[in-house]
Structures are given as structure tokens and as C-alpha cells.
Design goal:
- There is one protein chain.
- With 66 residues, the protein is α+β, with helices and mostly antiparallel strands.
- It is built from 1 helix and 4 strands; from the N terminus they run βαβββ.
- The strands form 2 sheets. A two-stranded parallel sheet has the order 1-2. The chain has a two-stranded antiparallel sheet with strand order 3-4.
- β3 and β4 form a beta hairpin.
């Protein structure tokens, strides 16, 4: 089964499928997983490393399986 995207929904779907014995291939165009909940590390002008979140994602109580 091909799962497109490495965001939280795709990762959750891939996990459920794999737990049920399905062979999963995950495709993601970015070099890191996480989609909008991922973060990036970069250097400030003085060389100090800093980490910044790419976006916001909320977890609601209805998402009992995450």
C-alpha cells in the first residue's frame, strides 16, 4: 500500500495499516517527516543554532488513537 505524505495523518494511517499486516511504502517529498508539525533547525547570524516550528496543529480529544 502506498501512503503519500509524511504528515501526522499519513503517519497514523501507515502505522494502522502496518499493524494489520499491510506492507506500507511511505512517500514524502521533504527530507523530514511530520508535515505541519515538523520543525527546522537553522543558524542565527551569530552562529547559534535555533529551532523553529513550521506550523500549528491541534490535537483534539476526538483523536483518541493519536
Amino acid at each position: 500500500m502506498a501512503v503519500i505524505g509524511g504528515g501526522i495523518a499519513s503517519l497514523a494511517a501507515a502505522t494502522v495499516l502496518a499493524e494489520r499486516g499491510v506492507r506500507v511504502v511511505l512517500y514524502e517529498r521533504e527530507p523530514v517527516l511530520g508535515g505541519r508539525v515538523s520543525s527546522r533547525t537553522f543558524a542565527l547570524p551569530d552562529g547559534t543554532p535555533a529551532t523553529m516550528s513550521r506550523g500549528f496543529h491541534a490535537f483534539f480529544r476526538q483523536y483518541y488513537n493519536l
